[in-house]
Amino acid sequence: MKLSKPLIGEYPQHFEEYIRDVPESQLLSILELQPEEVMLKLGTLSEEAGNYKYAAGKWSLKEVLGHVTDTERVMSYRLLRIARGDKTPLPGFSEELFVSYANFDRLSILQLLKDFSTVRGATLALIRQLDDEAWQRTGTACDELISCRALAFIIAGHAKHHFKMIRERYLQH
């Protein structure tokens, strides 16, 4: 599967960073390799390291992992709805609310990594079954236009962004 990058106008501007950071030719390989890469880097961390917050008011490493997985769930759901031709406007979600109610710190790092891997497997199964027509479909999420192909790039780029932040802000202490 080779999917071209979405054009400006196919997604809200605030997703530009995520889309820009995913090379067109590497979308599928990034999606496939991220769970294994993050498991290798984080799978042996202590629970103390998982509860680390690099600053007051910031999420713990575990909360970041949970956030990445929850966001992928939401984005994959949007991708499914839009790919299937559903034109129902889709609501937004509050990442702060999701994290505050999830209690991710009570889960082990390994549980959170396995959860991410499971969700990513479902995302990949959906992505692999879509045809060219589905990739061109657009819908509305958070009152803004978004395309299926933009959602795929956002999923990969969002995880890439947060895994980079984990390396820079959580693993350097």
* CATH architecture field: Up-down Bundle
How many discrete structural domains?
Answer: 1
The overall pLDDT average reads 97
Portion in beta strands = under 5%
Main sheet attributes: strand count, strand direction, barrel closure? 2 strands, antiparallel
Computed structural class: mainly alpha
Radius of gyration: 16 Å
Helix run count: 8
Q: Could you give the order of strands across the largest sheet?
A: 1-2
- Name the CATH class: Mainly Alpha
What coarse outline follows from CA principal-axis ratios? globular
Low-confidence segments, given as residue ranges, are none
Total strands: 2
Explained architecture:
The chain has 173 residues and is mainly alpha-helical. It has one domain: dinb family like domain (Four Helix Bundle (Hemerythrin (Met), subunit A)), CATH 1.20.120. The chain has eight helices and two strands, in the order αααααααββα. The chain has a two-stranded antiparallel ribbon. The longest helix has 23 residues. The model has no long low-confidence stretch (mean pLDDT 97). InterPro entries: DinB-like, DinB/YfiT-like. This is DinB family protein.
